[in-house]
From TrEMBL:
GO terms for cellular component: fungal-type vacuole. Belongs to the glycosyl hydrolase 15 family. This is glucan 1,4-alpha-glucosidase. Its EC number is 3.2.1.3. It comes from the Eukaryota.
């Protein structure tokens, strides 16, 4: 998952059809069935893409639940609510609970509860996770003390809810923000359905959860948002676009809950002031927006010394994780030109970087984390495509289509997003002007510097053609995933850039979550 595991510590200075069946005992495939023997492991999974999507959605959710302590896991050593990154305990060892990974996973479980609020086994997982959070937040560790809230930046813990004391890339300042978001999302489910907290003997009520579990993470972000930390890949000590955007989301959501639970005016003012300061930092002072680049520079420090070009799939993840509820006050939504150009730039780089993309005849391509990646899942050699990255491209495009269609938006193409939309644009003018609803002034120009604006009217022939192309293109990334997964739908961290064999940590929770969310985004279009 993170190449820092194999780097010297000194580098840091640089650097629901399924819901109703959840109570059926889950017979998880034994580890011996986790196939690395073929780049196209289709012995058991459906060959049909459409059939596979149905199959894989089920496998992903079952596999996620198998990596969480609770009613569905076969790992009886896992405490309730503990979410492991992977069952792999050696080469590499991912058998820990990462603050980030666990919070991202909890959001997915909360979505399932929102669809079925009577699923008490899933509710038990979520509330056990919150109970565990209350324990972990009160443990001093190598990231800091309890008194100054610095301990909340600790990136990972042992599965018995004790500290991991080895050298690591710490602190990681996105963790508290993501954890607060995930718990606030659960409180929203309780609020929407007028449900009480089930573990009332320990968690009491929603107000208790806000003040005891959520507020400390909000305080941490208020205190430390302006300080550097390690990125989500645990490699680089810097300011990071991903971290800053999830921090902004956490504080913005936190302000709503501070008002809901009648927190002090002083604390509400602190939240408001920090939101404004952080927003200004992201838009102006951070270096994420560079006048010489059409995309987000994910980590400015290494860009400025020529170590990286700034492209990172983390930018796309940040946009998705902060706009799942159609939030408009957070910048860099999925239709933002910088976000779309970041994705198209990653695609342009990696379709040639990974030889496997010359072998596969898909519209989509296999994507990795960032162009300069050298972590192969075990050692520092050469980076590979990741299931997280490849499926995330699908999810973003599906959600963009959903936004356009649901809100009946015209497709507006300009200098800020032309690099993305030219993937789909028919350059033959006859394809753009065959409809009376189309904009008459729609000459396409390959020279982006001279491109002004093209408006494709909602529901016109050209609009429908564009949407269809975008949908098929998004499918192409999931078709890459389909080809390279295990014979029973298993997902590792990476797949080899040359032969397509899976490698790195097996049964990666985050991989399952990313593919699951891409499939769900697709379903919501149909």
């Amino acid at each position: 998952m993170r190449s820092f595991r194999l780097l010297s510590f000194t580098i840091f200075i640089f650097q629901f059809n399924f819901i109703n069946s959840l109570f059926i005992p889950f017979q998880y495939p034994p580890q011996s069935l986790f196939s690395y023997g073929s780049s196209s492991n289709t012995a058991s999974i459906p060959n049909s893409f459409e059939d596979w999507l149905i199959y894989q959605e089920d496998v992903c959710l079952r596999s996620i639940l198998n990596n969480i302590g609770g009613d569905f896991t076969t790992d009886k050593d896992l405490l309730p609510g503990v979410i492991i990154a992977s069952p792999s305990k050696e080469n590499p060892n991912y058998y820990y609970q990462w603050t980030r990974d666990a919070a991202i996973t909890l959001n997915l479980i909360t979505e399932q509860v929102y669809l079925n609020p009577k699923n008490h086994s899933l509710i038990n997982i979520i509330e056990s996770y919150i109970e565990n959070t209350l324990i972990l937040q009160k443990i001093p560790n190598r990231s800091g003390s309890v008194e100054d809230y610095g301990n909340l930046g600790e990136p990972k813990f042992e599965t018995n809810l004790t500290n991991y004391n080895g050298n690591w890339g710490r602190p990681q300042r996105d963790g508290p923000a993501l954890r607060a978001i995930s718990i606030m999302n659960y409180l929203n489910v309780l609020y929407e359905y007028s449900l009480p907290v089930e573990k009332q003997s320990t968690l009491y009520n929603s107000s208790f959860i806000y003040y005891e579990a959520i507020k400390p993470d909000l305080i941490y972000t208020i205190k430390y948002w302006h300080e550097k930390g390690f990125d989500l890949w645990e490699e680089i000590y810097d300011y990071h676009f991903f971290t800053s955007l999830v921090q902004l989301k956490s504080l913005s959501l936190g302000l709503k809950y501070a008002k809901l639970f009648n927190d002090s005016i002083e604390f509400q003012n602190e939240l408001s002031e920090t939101i404004n300061n952080l927003l200004n930092f992201i838009n102006h002072d951070s270096g994420f927006i560079n006048p010489f680049k059409p995309y987000i520079v994910s980590g400015p420090s290494l860009y400025h010394i020529g170590k990286r070009n700034g492209l990172d799939i983390a930018t796309i993840l940040a946009s998705l994780y902060t706009h799942e509820d159609n939030e408009t006050s957070i910048p860099f939504n999925i239709d933002n030109g910088y976000i779309l150009t970041t994705l198209s730039s990653l695609i342009s780089d990696m379709k040639f970087r990974y030889p496997i993309n010359f072998q596969d005849n898909f519209l989509g391509v296999a994507l990795g984390r960032y162009p300069e990646d050298i972590y192969d899942g075990y050692h520092q050699t050469e980076g590979n495509p990741w299931f997280i990255s490849t499926s995330t491209a699908s999810e973003l495009i599906y959600k963009l289509i959903k936004d356009l269609k649901t809100n009946k938006k015209d497709i507006i193409i300009n200098n800020s997003n032309i690099d993305f939309f030219k993937i789909f644009l028919p350059l033959d003018n006859s394809n753009n002007s065959n409809d009376e609803n189309d904009n008459d002034d729609n000459d396409d120009n390959d020279d982006n510097d001279q491109f002004e604006e093209l408006i494709i009217k909602y529901n016109s022939k050209s609009y429908l053609l564009m949407i269809d192309k975008m949908f098929n293109y998004a499918d192409g990334f999931l078709k890459v995933v389909h080809k390279h997964i295990g014979s029973n739908g298993e997902l590792s961290e990476q797949f080899n850039k040359i032969n397509g064999y899976m490698q790195g940590a097996s049964e990666l929770t985050w991989s399952y979550g990313a593919v699951h969310q891409a499939i769900i985004a697709r379903k919501r279009l149909l």
